[in-house]
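Module 6 notes. Inverse folding takes a fixed backbone as the condition and produces residue identities as the prediction. Think of it as a translation problem where the source language is geometry and the target language is the twenty amino acids. Below is one complete input and output pair. Work through it position by position during the lab.
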């Protein structure tokens, strides 16, 4: 896939992403795709942005690179960090800069 930008994900908010754990998968939903701060370095290849994914599982996965698959974007490898837990499950964040 080409260099990922916010525009790649903006149309996928609300869509399902399957996070691979080898033999099994964990369903995630892309909850937010938001722009980051301004491009602070001349020559940056993309504007910073972040993604929030929601899992309805009570199990917290550790921060690491995960392979996720989406019907619109195909298979991607994304570094996810658990950032919140509420009654609905776990929220994971990916930051691109």
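Target side of the pair, the amino acids:
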């Amino acid at each position: 896939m080409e260099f990922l930008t916010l525009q790649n994900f903006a149309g996928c908010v609300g869509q399902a992403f399957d996070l691979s754990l080898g033999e099994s998968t964990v369903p995630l939903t892309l909850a937010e795709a938001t722009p980051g701060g301004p491009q602070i370095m001349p020559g940056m290849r993309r504007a910073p942005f972040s993604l929030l994914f929601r899992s309805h599982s009570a199990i917290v996965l550790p921060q690491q690179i995960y392979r996720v698959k989406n019907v619109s974007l195909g298979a991607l490898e994304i570094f996810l960090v658990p950032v919140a837990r509420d009654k609905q499950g776990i929220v994971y964040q990916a930051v691109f800069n």
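Reference fact for the lab report: The helical segments are 6-10.
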